[in-house]
Design goal:
Layout lengths: L46 E5 L5 H19 L3 E5 L3 H9 L5 E3 L2 H10 L4 E8 L6 E9 L14 E4 L5 H13 L4 H4 L2 E4 L3 H9 L5 E6 L13 H7 L8 E6 L3 E2 L2 E5 L4 H17 L1 H8 L5 E4 L6 H17 L1
Helix pairs in contact: 1-9, 2-3, 3-10, 8-9
C-alpha cells in the first residue's frame, strides 16, 4: 500500500453508497447475456465504442479488439472501436452523437455530462481488490532525482497527463490547491504529456522532474500496484519501478464509469450492465484486457456516484469564467 501522507483531499473521497444496493460482479447468480440480436439493435445499427487516450493507439486497439468481437458475437450487430486522441475526444464524440458507449474517467464523465446537459448515463464502474470503486492519483519522480516528497518539488517541473484526466490533472490540481499550493507558481513549469504513459516516460527521460498518473494504491509497488498506468507499463516491459519513486498521492477518487448515451433504450442499458457484470467470470482474459490489472469486477453505478465530481467541475468552470 502507498504510505499515507497528510496532503489529501477529502472532498474527492468516494461518495457514500446510494440507498439502492449496487449489483456487483461478485454477487451470486450473475449471468452473461444470452447470445442473439435484440430489438434495440434496430435503433443502433452499429455499436460505436469510444476508446479513451492514455496509451498509444496500437496498444489500445489490441487490448480492446477482443472486447469488440465479443460484443458483436453476443448481440449480433456490428461493433466499431473509435480510439480518441485524448480524453476530451471521447466527450466530444458523445456530444456529437458519434459513439454509443465508452469507458471514461470520473472528471471526463462529469465534464461531458455538464457539456451535454445530461446526455450521458453511467452504467458500471470497476471495483478494486478491496471492493471499493476508488483509485488514487499519484505523482512520480525518478528515484535518482533526490526528490522525496511534494516539498522537494518546489521550483521543479511537473507533467500532467491530460487536461480531461481525473487522476492525471483534475484531481491532483484540485488537491494541491485545496492545501494552498498554486501549481502555476509552486512549480517552475507544468505541461501536458499527452497521456498517462507519456507522463511517466517524460519523467524517465528527464523532460519533467515529476509526472501525474493513476494507480489502485493496492498491491506491490514493484509490479506497479494491482492496477493503473504503472502496472500496464510494467506488464509491457516499458518500466522498472525501481527507477521511480511515488512522492505524493491523493485521497481515493471514484473510478470512472462505462457510460452510454442517455437516450438509448433501457433494454440496451440493461444488456450492457449484465454484459460487464458477468464479464470477469465468463471471459476473464477480455476483462483483464480492458481493465489492465486486478480487481473484483464491476458494480452498477448511477449519476449520484459522480455528483461531487460534477460539482467540482462546475466550480472549476465558474472560476475560469471569473478570470476572463
Amino acid at each position: 500500500m502507498i504510505h499515507r501522507r497528510a496532503l489529501l483531499l477529502s472532498a474527492l473521497a468516494v461518495p457514500a453508497a446510494a440507498q439502492v444496493a449496487p449489483r456487483r460482479s461478485v454477487d451470486p447468480g450473475v449471468t452473461f447475456p444470452e447470445a442473439g440480436r435484440r430489438p434495440w439493435a434496430d435503433a443502433i445499427p452499429v455499436l460505436r465504442i469510444g476508446i479513451s487516450g492514455g496509451e498509444n493507439e496500437t496498444d489500445r486497439l489490441a487490448r480492446n479488439e477482443p472486447y469488440g468481437r465479443l460484443l458483436e458475437e453476443t448481440f449480433r450487430l456490428p461493433v466499431r472501436l473509435y480510439p480518441a486522441p485524448d480524453f476530451a475526444g471521447v466527450g466530444q464524440a458523445f456530444a456529437a452523437g458519434r459513439i454509443e458507449m465508452a469507458q471514461m474517467g470520473a472528471a471526463n464523465y462529469a465534464g461531458t455530462w455538464i457539456d451535454t446537459r445530461g446526455a450521458v448515463e453511467a452504467l458500471v464502474a470497476a471495483e478494486a481488490d478491496d471492493g471499493s470503486i476508488g483509485y488514487v492519483a499519484i505523482m512520480v519522480a525518478r528515484a535518482d532525482s533526490g526528490i522525496l516528497d511534494l516539498a522537494g518539488m518546489r521550483g521543479r517541473s511537473l507533467a500532467w497527463a491530460d487536461p480531461a484526466s481525473t487522476s492525471g490533472y483534475f484531481a491532483p490540481r484540485a488537491a494541491l490547491r485545496a492545501q494552498g499550493i498554486e501549481p502555476a507558481t509552486y512549480f517552475s513549469r507544468t505541461g501536458f504529456a499527452g497521456g498517462h504513459e507519456q507522463a511517466v516516460v517524460a519523467v524517465l527521460h528527464r523532460q519533467y522532474d515529476a509526472g501525474c498518473t493513476w494507480a489502485s494504491g493496492q498491491g506491490d509497488f514493484a509490479t506497479g500496484y494491482s492496477r493503473g498506468a504503472l502496472k500496464v507499463m510494467v506488464d509491457k516491459g516499458m518500466l522498472d519501478t525501481r527507477d521511480l519513486r511515488v512522492i505524493w498521492h491523493s485521497d481515493p477518487i471514484p473510478a470512472g464509469p462505462i457510460a452510454c448515451r442517455a437516450e438509448l433504450p433501457e433494454a440496451f442499458k440493461e444488456d450492457m450492465r449484465r454484459f460487464f457484470l458477468a464479464l470477469p467470470k465468463t471471459h476473464p482474459a477480455i476483462y483483464e484486457g480492458i481493465e489492465r490489472g486486478g480487481g473484483t469486477g464491476f458494480r452498477t453505478v448511477t449519476h449520484a456516484d459522480y455528483a461531487l465530481v460534477v460539482r467540482l467541475r462546475e466550480e472549476e468552470a465558474a472560476e475560469r469564467r471569473r478570470r476572463r
